Amino acid sequence: MSRDSYPQLHDGEWISPVKRGFREQCCDCGLVHVVDFRTKNNELQFRARRDDRATAAVRRGFKFERDE
Question: Per the domain annotation, does 68 fall within a domain?
Fold first, then answer.
């Protein structure tokens, strides 16, 4: 899978993400987050950070309606 492609997921679908560097993209706006997961004291934790560079690359391919 290339850096600028993301698996298609459906609303409510369960997945098994990779532990570090899992990337998700919003299908509506193209915002991309990098998500890391870990377990600490028997609890699942995750953190998410916006990937501005990947988001810009995705959004370049979007066609937005513009006011004329």
Answer: no
Q: Rounded CA gap, 21 and 3, in Å?
A: 11
Both tokens of 52, joined, read: 């501005």
Per residue in 10-42, pLDDT (tens digit) is: 777 777 878 888 888 877 788 888 888 888 999
What is the number of residues in the chain? 68
In a domain, 50, yes or no: yes
32-40 and 43-50 beta bridge pairing: antiparallel
In 3-state terms, the chain is what percent helix, strand and coil (to 5)?
Answer: 15, 30, 55
The total number of structural domains in the chain stands at: 1
